């Protein structure tokens, strides 16, 4: 039986049933409105953003990389988790009592546990896959069947781990105040097996938090180490390239340096003009000296004149034997 709890959040009320007690702290109306608006904004942005991611991946034609399947799986799990969280928040609004019944109590919280397990497991797979691609880029990529198997195993394992939370979750009523009671959806293990509840909580903590966190930390540590090695190699290559370029620049010819080439060409042009002036002066002097010197007869002409003057008979003999030489 429930009662009017219009002043529930304006006063502190304690209800006791055996060893269980509840304390309802007062919440100002303005704070409740701000909380509701902020949660609604976060929920809308989460649903719309993750839907856009899923739609972009699913509408992509052709074969998709494994990372795209993991990202779409992550987005779908976040959509499911947000939907469950919306119903859960609504169920615990004032008067701070579960309003959705026993069936929804067995569905909502276990489904939210499963979706959170899928989110953390997918993040771990994504970090490991990125590390594998960077550390060993030549490794064989998973086939489409292997991708589907990984995603299926993720969901089946998560749902399987959330089954105990669904089996042992019930709605319990606790009285408080005068003729009032509150309903709480909680996980209640049978008497004598409370230690199993502790073991189950530890298993969920290890699988949902510790193991994915360790995988993500190790993977991104290896990724950062590999990136630092690549940066070091690139820095060494740049140093070697700069040294090679400095050697090449120091050994370049004058034609490859425009400023210096212009200056050298001007100097060469001036020197060429000076050399031409000197050559003209030398040529003029040599020409004047040749004109001033008397002409000398060649030895062949002098010998021919001497022969002809001393022995005219030889002219007849030479012209008769070789008439072409006389014509010359």
Question: Could you explain the architecture of this structure?
Answer:
The termini are far apart. This protein is mainly alpha-helical and 328 residues long. The relative contact order is 0.07. The chain has 9 helices and 4 strands. Helix 3 (101-135) runs parallel beside helix 5. Mean pLDDT is 76; it is low at 4-19, 295-299 and 313-328. The strands form 2 sheets. The protein has a two-stranded antiparallel sheet with strand order 1-2. A two-stranded antiparallel sheet has the order 3-4. Strand 1 and strand 2 form a beta hairpin. Helices cover 71% and strands 8% of the residues. It is elongated.
The helicity comes to: over 70%
Give the termini distance in whole angstroms. 154 Å
Largest sheet: 2 strands, antiparallel
Q: How many strand units? A: 4
Order of helices and strands: EEHHHHEEHHHHH
**Poorly predicted ranges (pLDDT <50, ≥5 residues)?**
4-19, 295-299, 313-328
Structural class: mainly alpha
What is the general shape? elongated
Count of runs of 4 or more consecutive helical residues: 9
Tell me the strand order in the biggest sheet. 1-2
What Rg, in angstroms, do the CA atoms define? 52 Å
The fraction of residues assigned to DSSP E strands is: 5-15%
Nearest-integer average pLDDT: 76
């Amino acid at each position: 039986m429930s009662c009017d709890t219009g002043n529930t959040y304006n006063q502190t009320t304690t209800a006791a049933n055996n060893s269980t007690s509840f304390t309802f702290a007062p919440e100002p109306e303005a704070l409740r409105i701000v909380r509701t608006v902020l949660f609604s904004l976060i929920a809308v942005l989460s649903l719309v953003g993750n839907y856009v991611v899923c739609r972009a991946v699913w509408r992509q034609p052709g074969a998709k990389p494994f990372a795209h399947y993991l990202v779409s799986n992550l987005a779908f799990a976040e959509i499911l988790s947000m939907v469950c969280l919306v119903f859960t928040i609504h169920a615990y609004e004032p008067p701070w009592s579960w309003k959705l019944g026993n069936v929804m109590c067995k569905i909502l919280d276990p489904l939210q546990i499963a979706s959170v397990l899928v989110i953390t497991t997918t993040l771990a797979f994504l970090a490991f896959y990125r590390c594998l691609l960077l550390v060993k880029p030549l490794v064989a990529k998973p086939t489409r069947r292997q991708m589907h198997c990984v995603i299926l195993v993720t969901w089946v394992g998560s749902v399987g781990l959330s089954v105990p939370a669904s089996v042992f979750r019930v709605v319990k009523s606790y009285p408080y105040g005068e003729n009032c009671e509150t309903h709480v959806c909680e996980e209640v293990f049978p008497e004598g097996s409370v230690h199993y509840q502790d073991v189950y909580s530890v298993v969920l903590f290890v699988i949902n938090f510790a193991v994915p966190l360790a995988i993500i930390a190790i993977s991104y540590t290896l990724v950062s180490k590999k990136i630092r090695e690549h940066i070091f190699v690139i820095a060494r290559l740049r140093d070697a390239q700069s040294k090679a370029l400095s050697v090449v620049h120091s050994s370049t010819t004058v034609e490859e340096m425009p400023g210096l080439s212009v200056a050298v060409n001007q100097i060469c042009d001036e020197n060429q003009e000076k050399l031409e002036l000197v050559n003209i002066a030398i040529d003029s002097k040599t020409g004047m000296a040749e004109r001033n010197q008397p002409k000398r007869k060649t030895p062949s002409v002098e010998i021919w004149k001497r022969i002809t003057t001393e022995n005219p008979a030889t002219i007849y003999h030479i012209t008769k034997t070789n008439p072409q030489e006389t014509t010359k």
